[in-house]
């Protein structure tokens, strides 16, 4: 009798401990997650230098490019012409805690961004960037937005002192300089990325981003003081966990975090294709300066 | 290539135009007027370190005391960065001399053909940068 | 200028007359054992620069291929550097405007001839010149004429709309379309390698040419790209890459070759710790009478020197300057015919 009770107890304890491992809050979620399908300590294959091999083509499935925070389905631009084409799906926030901690005055600017997201006016150099979602204009998306665009990207990791990340959207690229001290000599659209390993996590410090990029189509924005720290952690042969801590004292009251999984594209012979979107934007941006036919 | 007698200089340049598409990507005299040379002194208000052209914004004082804003088109900032310069290399308030050509449409825009400091020193060459490659790993 | 040409031509004729023909440094010429990556591929990694003053085509009118002696090479280099220098202000204001800026905005390495002292980058045909052009079909002639009209409008500073501008001006492609040719600045390429791939990242315009070397087939014909689709394989220590699937747009390929019939093979061989030989062969029976090949050395960049982002479309204010300026001048009665349009062939 005692043995059976003992075994039952051990059985329960065993299952509980398995569940405890499963519900270990790996990614800072607010509510306890269901048991994780991933082994708690996945060990990725190694490259010759002993670091995890992150090579491959990856893509996010979250809808954060529409809106980092909770969002309902929405009609697309000019739905009177396009119906359900281009409409936006619903999605849950990828922001830790749900909300982006804007300073009150910055929230007004976000609202203005959203209202003007479909407008452009490039007639003056000085106001060239004032209106419109930069994604719509085919400007490089910056970090972290590039990682949750609905396009794949490829990590090229070898034995050089840098890792290349190549994005299908606009053929954007960024070079992750490993163990690099030099700061950004000037601002750039994809930022200045310096990487290092912390165990099996690739940590990337991103500074020097152009202030004109947005985080999403909802108008979430930042200033030129933006500082992003990314963490890429392989958690299975087919998944990599992505976290980014975002800091900008001009716009937010405190640093905040986003996270979501990246999925390995498994199609046979998958490769990045081209999405050179400049030609898709020229009529929008420059059409109004065309020579009008003489009457 | 035509076989007429031309100097090496011209032949070389023509050959190079075939070899160097970026040279012909932007025929500067399509935008700036060879018949409207300008040369004046101005005070830098800002510099945009952007591609494909960096831009220097200048306040230029007219003889009558009024101030005009001019936009000076220059080259790719990447080359300057490789010479050790940064966006701090041309601070606001610096006086520079622009010797260039005005935009064909008469606007206050010019090609920064030759940029110098008032003392005659070429801008960006050995003034603030060391000229050495950016070398802090 | 004329005197300088005569002096040069005399030297050159002497070189030819003495039958001084030196084999061009090519894949087999140097015995350098390139290091290998841990997975066994020859290591081409690093940041490389291809700037040079050596012209694509041999100047003058000489049929023999050749390289120059030390003295001749020095004279050749000086002569080219003088032609190319942006600090000279002579030659009239039209030439002056087109030099654009001071020399420090340019890549100083473009004033140096190649280390092997060839007189052209083209190594085949032996006369160092692009083969004769083939008469284009009527359809291509129409396209060519349309583009020439657009170029004339652009050169006069009166483009009708953005389509009158070339693809590089529109920041769609620049020096990233193969074959890679030296230009005035940002002549940099970073090569990354990973198991099964070689990746070439050109500086202008940002992009990554991620090349599988595992033998997989090209994309199907229906998938065309601005930079085509590239597959590579190793031949000894040479990376050989073939590119197909170019889009049908006119005016993208070198000398406006026909994307439907254009083929290109490129070869990369590490010939020294700090040098790669980049060789390309292009063929297009509807554009050139025969294929031709050029060899361009890629020199390793000082480790402290790096690639930097070249965003183009994002701040391409000139598109608007051109168009709004044109509209204003048209309002003032200007027309294309009013100014002599330059005959310069847009890319």
Name the features.
heterotrimer, B: 137 residues, alpha+beta, OB fold (Dihydrolipoamide Acetyltransferase, E2P), 5-stranded mixed barrel, 3 helices, 5 strands, disordered C terminus, C: 347 residues, 2 domains, 10-stranded antiparallel beta sheet, 10 strands, disordered N terminus
Summarize the structure.
The complex is a heterotrimer of chains A (295), B (137) and C (347). Chain A has 295 residues and is of the alpha+beta class.
What can you tell me about this protein's structure?
The complex is a heterotrimer of chains A (295), B (137) and C (347). Chain A has 295 residues and is an alpha+beta fold. Chain A has one domain (50-76, 87-288). Chain A has helices at residues 2-23, 79-82, 104-115, 278-286; strands at residues 56-60, 153-156, 162-167, 173-178, 192-198, 201-207, 227-236, 239-247, 256-264. Chain A has a nine-stranded mixed β-barrel with strand order 1-2-3-4-5-6-7-8-9. In chain A, a hairpin with a 5-residue loop joins β2 and β3 (162-167). The relative contact order of chain A is 0.16. With 137 residues, chain B is α+β, with helices and mostly antiparallel strands. Chain B has a domain at 29-116: Nucleic acid-binding proteins (OB fold (Dihydrolipoamide Acetyltransferase, E2P)), CATH 2.40.50. Chain B has helices spanning 8-19, 21-25, 77-82; strands at residues 32-48, 55-61, 67-73, 95-103, 109-116. In chain B, strands 1-2-3-5-4 form a five-stranded mixed barrel. In chain B, a hairpin with a 5-residue loop joins β4 and β5 (109-116). Chain B starts with 7 loop residues before the first helix and ends in a 21-residue tail after the last strand. Chain C is an alpha+beta fold and 347 residues long. Chain C folds into two domains: 2-26 and 53-122, no CATH class; 27-52 and 123-347, no CATH class. In chain C, strands 1, 2, 3, 4, 5, 6, 7, 8, 9 and 10 form a ten-stranded antiparallel sheet that branches. In chain C, β6 (229-235) and β7 form a beta hairpin. In chain C, α1 (2-17) packs antiparallel against α2 (70-84). The two termini of chain C are 28 Å apart. The chains are: A alpha+beta (295), B alpha+beta (137), C alpha+beta (347). Chains B and C meet through α1, α2, β1, α3 and β5 of B and α1, α2, α3 and α5 of C.
């Amino acid at each position: 009798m005692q043995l059976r009770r003992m075994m039952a107890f051990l059985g329960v304890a065993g299952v509980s401990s398995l569940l405890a491992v499963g519900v270990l809050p790996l990614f800072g979620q607010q509510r306890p997650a269901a048991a994780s399908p991933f082994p708690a300590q996945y060990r990725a294959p190694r490259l010759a230098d002993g670091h995890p091999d992150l090579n491959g083509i990856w893509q996010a499935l979250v809808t954060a490019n529409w809106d980092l925070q909770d969002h309902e389905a929405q009609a697309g631009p000019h739905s009177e012409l396009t119906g359900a084409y281009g409409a936006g799906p619903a999605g849950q926030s990828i922001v830790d805690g749900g909300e982006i901690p804007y300073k009150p005055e910055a929230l007004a600017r976000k609202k203005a961004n959203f209202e003007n997201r479909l407008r452009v006016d490039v007639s003056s150099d000085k106001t060239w960037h004032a209106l419109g979602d930069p994604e719509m204009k085919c400007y490089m998306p910056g970090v972290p937005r590039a990682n949750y665009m609905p396009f794949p990207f490829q990590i090229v990791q070898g034995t050089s002192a840098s890792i290349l990340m190549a994005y299908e959207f606009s053929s954007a690229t960024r070079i992750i300089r490993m163990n690099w001290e030099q700061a950004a000599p000037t601002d750039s659209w994809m930022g200045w990325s310096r990487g290092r390993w912390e165990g099996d996590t690739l940590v990337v410090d991103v500074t020097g981003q152009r202030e004109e990029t947005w985080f999403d189509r909802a108008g979430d924005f930042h200033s030129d003081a933006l500082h992003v720290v990314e963490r890429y952690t392989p958690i299975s042969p087919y998944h990599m966990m992505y976290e980014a801590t975002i800091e900008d004292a001009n716009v937010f009251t405190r640093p905040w975090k986003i996270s979501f999984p990246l999925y390995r594209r498994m199609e046979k012979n998958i490769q990045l294709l081209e999405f050179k979107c400049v030609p898709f934007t020229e009529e929008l941006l420059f059409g109004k300066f065309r020579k009008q036919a003489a009457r | 290539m035509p076989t007429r007698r031309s100097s090496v200089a011209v032949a070389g340049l023509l050959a190079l135009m075939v070899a160097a598409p970026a040279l012909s990507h932007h025929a500067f005299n399509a935008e700036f007027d060879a018949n409207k040379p300008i040369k004046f002194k101005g005070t830098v208000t800002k510099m945009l370190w952007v591609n494909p052209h960096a831009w220097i914004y200048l306040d230029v004082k007219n003889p009558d005391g009024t101030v005009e804003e001019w936009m000076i088109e220059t080259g790719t900032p990447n080359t300057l960065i490789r010479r050790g310069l940064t966006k701090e290399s041309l601070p606001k308030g610096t006086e520079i001399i622009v010797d260039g050509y005005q935009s064909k449409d008469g606007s206050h825009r010019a090609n920064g053909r030759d940029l110098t400091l008032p003392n005659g020193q070429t801008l960006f060459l050995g003034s603030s940068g060391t000229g050495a490659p950016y070398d802090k790993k | 200028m004329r005197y300088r040409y005569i002096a040069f031509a005399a030297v050159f004729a002497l070189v030819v007359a003495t039958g001084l023909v030196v084999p061009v440094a090519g894949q087999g010429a140097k015995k350098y054992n390139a290091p290998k990556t841990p997975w066994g591929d020859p290591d081409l990694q690093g940041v490389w620069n291809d700037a040079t003053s050596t012209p694509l085509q041999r100047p003058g009118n000489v049929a023999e291929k050749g390289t120059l002696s030390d003295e001749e090479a020095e004279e050749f280099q000086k002569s080219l550097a003088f032609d190319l220098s942006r600090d000279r202000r002579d030659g009239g204001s039209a030439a002056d405007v087109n030099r654009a800026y001071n020399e420090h905005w340019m890549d100083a390495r473009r004033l140096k001839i190649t280390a092997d002292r060839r007189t052209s980058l083209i190594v085949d045909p032996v006369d160092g010149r692009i083969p004769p052009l083939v008469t284009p079909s009527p359809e291509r002639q129409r396209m060519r004429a349309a583009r020439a009209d657009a170029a004339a409008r652009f050169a006069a500073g009166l483009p009708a709309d953005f389509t009158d501008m070339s693809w590089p001006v529109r920041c769609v492609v620049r020096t990233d379309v193969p074959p890679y040719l030296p230009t005035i600045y940002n002549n940099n390429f970073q090569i990354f390698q990973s198991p099964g791939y070689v990746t070439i990242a050109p500086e202008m315009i940002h992009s990554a040419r991620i090349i599988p070397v595992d033998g997989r087939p090209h994309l199907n014909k229906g998938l065309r790209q601005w930079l085509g689709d590239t597959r590579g394989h190793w031949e000894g220590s040479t990376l050989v890459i073939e590119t197909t699937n170019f889009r049908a747009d006119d005016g993208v390929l070198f000398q406006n070759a026909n994307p439907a019939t254009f083929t290109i093979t490129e070869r990369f061989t590490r010939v020294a710790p700090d040098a790669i030989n980049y060789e390309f062969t292009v063929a297009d029976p509807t554009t050139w009478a025969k294929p031709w090949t050029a060899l361009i050395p890629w020199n390793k960049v000082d480790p402290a020197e790096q690639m930097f982002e070249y965003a183009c479309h994002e701040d391409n204010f000139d598109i608007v300057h051109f168009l709004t300026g044109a509209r204003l001048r048209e309002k003032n009665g200007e027309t294309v015919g009013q100014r002599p349009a330059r005959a310069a062939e847009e890319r």
